Amino acid sequence: MPTVIGPVRPTQTGDSVDQTAVGPLLSGGSTMFRVCIYHGMPTVTFRGREIECNEGETLRDVLQDAGLTPHNGKTKTFNCRGFASCGTCAVAVDGEVSDVGLREKGRLLVPPHHPNYDLRLSCQTKVIGDVRVEKYPGNWGTKIAKGPLPPVDEVDSAETDPAETDSAEFDSEASEATVD
Ligand code: FES
Description:
It contains three helices and seven strands, in the order ββββαβαββα. The chain has 180 residues and is an alpha+beta fold. The chain folds into two domains: 1-40, no CATH class; 43-152 and 160-174, Ubiquitin-like (UB roll). The longest helix has 8 residues, at 167-174. The site of FE2/S2 (inorganic) cluster (FES) has 11 residues, from loops. It comes from Halohasta litchfieldiae.
């Protein structure tokens, strides 16, 4: 009597670990092996929040659908709406995401961006697995030396969110062309 080992299913909805089961199956007298891999929903961690999304979703959409934003200050209103031209949705990403495309790569070469910042345009980045995302100050999110923005819950209503930058900074930042 052959032993058939079935696939192992995640115990809870949203489990993000791969679970693999290999079992010998009899077919026409020969033995085959079947590997079943189950993926849960990726989790995006951003400014103290954890957001579940579907694999392949655009990072900018994931943040905005959760009531968050990859944009700082006035660029929340004034941006290219996801066409990889303004460069203001840039974030640092650690995790499984899509590769950098040519359009995105080209924009990240234009100041105030710089390849050394190692940022991604969230409007061009697809979420593949769990990712940790950081946003830096400045209208393009390029003020790396200042450190990432704090969790949104830590920003008291009486305190100014560092993500909110004024127009003077906008003007000076626009003319930047060097690495901090
Ligand atoms: S929204 Fe303009 S580059 Fe992403």
